[in-house]
Amino acid sequence: MRALRVLGVVASLAIAREVRADGSRRIETLEIEGNHRTRASTIADLLPTPLPAAMADAEVRELERRVRNLEIFDDVAVEARGPVLHVRVREKWTLIPHVELSTGDTAEDLKVLVGATEYNVLGSGNSLGVRAFRAERGFGGGVTFREHMFRRRRWSLAVELTASTAQYRFESGTSWEAFRSYDEITFTSPPFLSERVNVRLGGFAQYESTSDRVLAEVPERAGGGGTILALSYNRYAFHDLTPSGVKAEIFGGTGFLATEAATLQPRHYVEGYAVGALPIGPRTVLVGRVVSGSLTRGNPNFSYLVGSVEGVRGLQDNLYRNWVQAFANLEARHGVWLAPRWALQGVAFVDGAAFERFAESGTRGPTAAALSGGLGVRLVPTWLASTVLRIDVAYLVTPERRPFVQLGLKQYVF
User: Fold this and answer.
1) Residue 54 exposed, middle or buried by CB count within 10 Å (0-12, 13-18, 19+)
2) Beta strands 29-33 and 84-91: pairing type?
3) DSSP letters of 365-391?
4) Measured between alpha carbons, how far apart are the two ends of the chain, in Å?
């Protein structure tokens, strides 16, 4: 009996050493289960401090959120087992060929993309993708490399190289062909001032040339670059069916392009976006997105483009070129499991936008609004990274009235 009391006292003292007065516990080691291709260091980089260290329950939950947000696992569980922090994951297949299709108002406005992306390069959680595409009535290609931004003690790198042709067209019938290249490099900080806040710094280089198509006075060839600054907030938790939380970013750039006539054209912009997800059941969620931006006027080659591919489903693509715009999307999703790691999801959605267009000369054009709504269905293979078979049927209410069908291999709002 006395021996049992002694063992009880020893156990109590051990627990007291593990769990401290402030609720934190001493974690000595990290144990990972299920990471067949992912390096242990990739997950260790998400810890607030190197082990051994004291960790509170909130920090354990934050680690689980960051592991989920790598988007390379479809099952994640993190728990403290005495002095051991146990992480269990189930990996997705991460080398994904892409064949994306988004229909437009006409056959010319069809958007097609083929390529491939590895979302877990050498087990690092970073992505590397190559692509070729037809979009904006032109053709192009690009390469993108992105280090994930969820490390807590190191900056992450992102590089994007893109070149494409496009047709710029206006309601008056004026149009021209353009060639453009855009190269960008940015660095995202670890948590800055707050656990949920990051800073992104970088720069861009740009070149554009145009050719006469329909008796238009086209912009001059120009090349140059500028700087990028962004501030982001992220308390979003990724899930294939029921994400939750909020993420937002405000960012801007300032720069100049030099033209053939040795003049400088400003390239300044400020943009922002926010995405929010609210689960209202085990497989039901409300997801919303708001995107807005404004840029310097003077050259419609430097413009936003809102349409059905990004913006309002049913809106004509490659027509609404704007200097200021905002659009929002709201989706209600409900999923059912068809089989292990396969789900079917029904969606009801509403899209809206407001914008002011460019005239051909680069001056202010007419203002307009767009609104559509509809239903969709998604086939979700959760064992594949970043892959969803999407079909949406929309009805555009304004500025025109017509039905519309769109296909894609990603969620429209993500």
Assistant:
1) middle
2) parallel
3) EEEEEEEEEEEEEEEEETTBTT--EEE
4) 61
How confident is the model at residue 105, as a pLDDT? Answer: 61
DSSP bridge partners of 196: none
For the domain with range 95-408, which CATH number is right: 3.40.50.720, 2.60.40.1930, 1.10.443.10, 2.40.160.50? 2.40.160.50
CATH 3.10.20.310 domain span(s) along the chain:
10-91
Q: What is the residue-wise DSSP string for 137-181?
A: TEEEEEEEEE--S--SSS-EEEEEEEEEEEEEE-TTS-EEEEEEE
CA distances from 239 to 44, 97, 236, 377 (A): 21, 21, 10, 17
> pTM of the entire structure?
0.86
Handedness of CA 270, 353, 236, 67 (dihedral sign): negative
The tens digit of pLDDT for each residue in 257-293 reads 998 877 898 999 999 999 999 999 999 999 999 999 9
Mean pLDDT (the chain, rounded): 89
Domain 10-91 homologous superfamily, CATH: membrane protein fhac (3.10.20.310)
Query: 44 in helix, strand or coil?
Result: helix
- Distance CA(104)–CA(120), nearest Å, equals 32
Where do the CATH 2.40.160.50 domains begin and end in the chain?
Answer: 95-408
d(CA 11, CA 19): 12
To which H or E segment does residue 265 belong? strand 264-266
C-alpha to C-alpha distance for 152 and 174, rounded to whole angstroms: 51
Q: What digits encode the pLDDT tens for the residues 141-194?
A: 999 999 999 999 999 999 999 999 988 888 777 788 889 999 999 999 999 888
272 token code pair: 């922002």
